[in-house]
Amino acid sequence: MAGSTSLGHLRANMLQGVRTLAKSPRFTIPALAIIALGIFIATLVFTIFDAVILNALPYPHASRMVALFGKSERAAGSQFPLSRNEIEQLQSDAGIFDRVGYYVYLGDKHLTDGDAALRIGSLQVSPDFFRVFEMEPILGRQFRLEEFQSGKNDAVIIAYGLWQRQFSSDPQVIGRVIHLDGAPYTVVGVMPEGFRFPTPEVRAWFPDPASSQPDKAADKMAVARVRPGASLAQAQAALAVVSSRLRQGPFNRPVFPDFTISAINLRDQVVGASQKILLLLLLAVALVQLIVCANVTNLLLARNALRKKEVAIRIALGASRLRVIQELLTESLLLGIAGCVLGLILAAGGIHVVRIAFAQSLDNCGPLVMDLFVLSASLGLSIFSGIIFGLLPAIRATAVSPNHVLQEGSGGSRAGFRLLRGHRLQSVLTASQITLALVLLIGFGLLFRSLSRIMNVDQGFNPKKVIAIQFGTLNRSGQKATVALNQVLWNIRQLPSVQSAAISSMRPFLGVSIATLFAAQTTDGDWVMSPAIEAQAVSADYFRTLQVPVIAGRAFSDSDTLGSPCVVVVSSSLARIFWADGNPLDRQIDLNGGLGGQPAICRVIGVVNDVKDVLLQGTGKPEIYFHFAQRNLGTHALLIRTNENGSVSPNEVLHAVHAIDGSLDADSVASLDQIISNSAYQPRLRATVLGLFAMLAVALAITGLYGVTSHSVGQRTKELGIRVALGATRANLVQLILTDCIVLIGIGVIAGSFVALAVTRSFTSMLYEIKPADLLTYVSTGALLMVVALAASCVPARRVTKLSPNVVLREE
C-alpha cells in the first residue's frame, strides 16, 4: 500500500514537473541547452577514454599482460630489446609467467598481390607470440613448429583489415601464395579484427627462424602474460633474480654491468602519451560540469524567487515542506534527464566526427562507440547533476514563512535583491564559475606558451627550403646499396632548383632513432665504454644540406669511401663527454670495443653542432655520424635543399628515385618545416583541447554573470527608481551595479589564481621551459577574464539608464 502511494506521488510529481517546465520556456530552454552541452562534452570524453584507455588492449585478461625490456643506469631512460637466449632463460627460470613471446621488426614490405600494390608493416614472431594474447586466427591456423626452422619459414599470417581490403574478405585466401618484396609466402591464417599489436601498421606476421647457434642478437621485443594472482611487483622481483643470473652467465653484457630485465604493464606502454591528454580532458570535463551545475543552480534560484508566493500559499494550505522539496527536486531531475537525452544525441554526432577527423590517431585503440559504460556514466552524471543543482534551490525555496511572504504584497518579490549583499548564494555560485573558468584559462595559457617555446626552439640546423623522404627497405646491401644511393643523389641533383641533396639513416623527427655502442680513446689515452649513443650514417653533403655548423675539423667528403680509413664526426656534446679538453680530433673509437671480435678503429675528423632531430623538447643529445659508404645502418632517408625561390614537386623526386630502383618504396615527400610542425602534435593537441574547454568555461561563466546581473537589475527596479527620484544620476546607477560586479569578478579571479596554482602542478611534465606558476600567464589570463566579464556586466547595467522614476513608482 505504501509502495503504491509512493509511486503515485512520484507519478504526480513527474506530471506536475513536466507541466511546470513546459509553461516556462524562457527558463527551460536555456537550462536544457546548458545541461545538454555539459553532457555532450562529458559523453564525448567518456567515449574516447573508454576506447583509448579502458579498451586499449581488447584481449582476454589484458591486465595480466606485460612488456619486457632491458635497462641500465649507463643509458638512463632507454629500453633495450632482448636476445632469444635472455628470453628463453627468463621463461624457464622466472616461474611467474604463463607465456613469454617476442617479436622483431622487419620494417615495411611491398605487397604486390590483391587489389593494389601496398606497403605493409611486418614482424617476425616467436612460437608463443599469439598465445600470449590468447588470440586465435579467425581463418586458418597459427604457425606450426616446423615453420620456425631455417629455410622453412615461408608462412605468413595476415591482419583482418588487410584480408578485408586487399583480398575482399575471400575465405579461400588460406593457402594462397602472396609476394612480399618479391618473395613468395603462403597465407596460413587471418587474425581477428581487434588484433592490431603492436601498431595498426603491422599487417603481416612471419615465424622467426630458429638458429642452432646461441643467439646474442638483442633485437627482440618481449611480451608476457603473468600467472593468475601474481602482481607486477612480484614479476619485477622474479626478473631481478633472473637478471642477476644472466649477468654472471655466458650471455652477459659487458658494456652494461648493471643490465636488468624489467617489466611494464602493456596497457601503459601502448597508451603512452595519450593517457596524459585524456586525464587532462577528464579534469577539464569535471571543471566544466561544475560550472554547468553552478549556472543551472543560479537559474533555478532566480526562478524559485519568482515562485516564492506560490510555494508560501501551498505550505499555508497544508502541504509539507518535504513534499514541496520532492516536487521541486523532481523538476530538476526531469531537467537533468532531458538534458542528458539531448546531450547523448549531440554526442552521437560528435563521436562520428571524431572518428573521421582522428581516424589515424584512434587506430590503435578500442572501438569508439557509446557502450554500456559510457551510457551509464553519462546517465549517472546527469542524475547526480540534477540532484546537485536542484537540491539547494529547493531547500531555499521552502525555507520561507508563509505569513511574511503573503504580507509582502505584489512588490515584495522584487525588493532587496542585491549582489553580494542580499543573495550571497547566487554571488558565491557566480564567483565560483569565474574561479573554475580561470583555472582552465590559466591551464590553456601555460600549454600555449609552452607550445610557443617548443615551436621556436633552435633545432641546431636550418629546416627552411628542405624536403625529406624516408625510404622503405632497400633490396640491396653493401657496395651495391652505396652505388644505388649515390645514383639516386646524382639524379636528384640534376633537378632544377635543387641546391644540394644528402642521404641519412633517418629523416629528422621520424620518431625513432638508431643507437650504437663503442669504446672511445680519451685524452689520457685510456679506453672507456660508451652508453647507447644515437647514430646516423650520412653522405658527404649531409651537414651542408641541413646547414649544421661544423665547429672543428671537417665534414665528410667524397674521398671517404669503403676502401679508405674509417672516419667519424661527433656532436659537440659527445665530444664533451669523452674528451675533457674539448678536442676529439684525431682521437680513435673502437666500434667493437667491449663487444668482442677484432677492433674496428675509426678516427674522429670533425665536431658539429648539437641538433634536435628526434624531439624538439630537451637538449641536443650526443650523436655520432658515420659515412654511409663505410657503415650502413640499414635504413635510408633523402634530404633535399632547394634554392631560395625554387621548389621541387614530389613527383619529380619519386621519379628520380624510381629511375634507379623501381621497387624502392618511400613515404610521401614533405617539407622539414611541416615535419617539425607535425612532431609537436601532442603539445598542440593538449593546448587546442584545453583551449576549447577554456573558451566554453568562460562563455558559461560569463552567461551566468550576465544572468545574475540582469536578474539583480530587474529585482532592484523600485530601489533604483527611488534613487533617481532623489537625485542620483544614471552614471551613479551604472557605477552602483558595476561596483558589485567588479567585486564579484575580483573575488573569482583571486580565488581562481590560487586554485590554479594547486591544479597546474600536475601540468609540469607537459610544460617546456615554462613553470606552472608563470606570472605572465596568470596576470594576462586574469586580466583578460576580468575585461570580458566586466563587458558582459555592462549590458544589463546600461538598462538602468532607461529607468523612468514616474513609471516605476506608479507601478508600485
The helix fraction, in percent, is 40-55%
Distance between the termini: 51 Å
Low-confidence stretches: 410-417
Largest sheet entry: 10 strands, mixed
Rough outline: elongated
> What integer is the average pLDDT?
80
Oligomerization category of the chains in this entry: single chain
Number of helices: 23
Concise structural overview:
By secondary structure, the chain is an alpha+beta fold. It is built from 23 helices and 23 strands.
Topology record:
Layout lengths: L1 H22 L1 H30 L10 E7 L12 H10 L3 E15 L6 E8 L3 H4 L6 E2 L14 E4 L1 H7 L10 E4 L2 E8 L11 E6 L13 E6 L5 H17 L11 E6 H6 L2 H33 L1 H9 L4 H37 L14 H27 L3 H7 L15 H32 L10 E5 L7 H16 L4 E7 L9 E3 L2 E3 L5 E3 L3 E6 L3 H5 L3 E4 L13 E5 H7 L9 E3 L10 E8 L14 E5 L9 E6 L7 H9 L11 E2 H8 L1 H35 L1 H9 L4 H30 L15 H23 L7 H7 L1
Helix pairs in contact: 1-10, 2-8, 2-10, 2-11, 3-6, 8-11, 8-13, 8-19, 9-12, 10-11, 13-19, 13-21, 13-22, 19-22, 20-23, 21-22
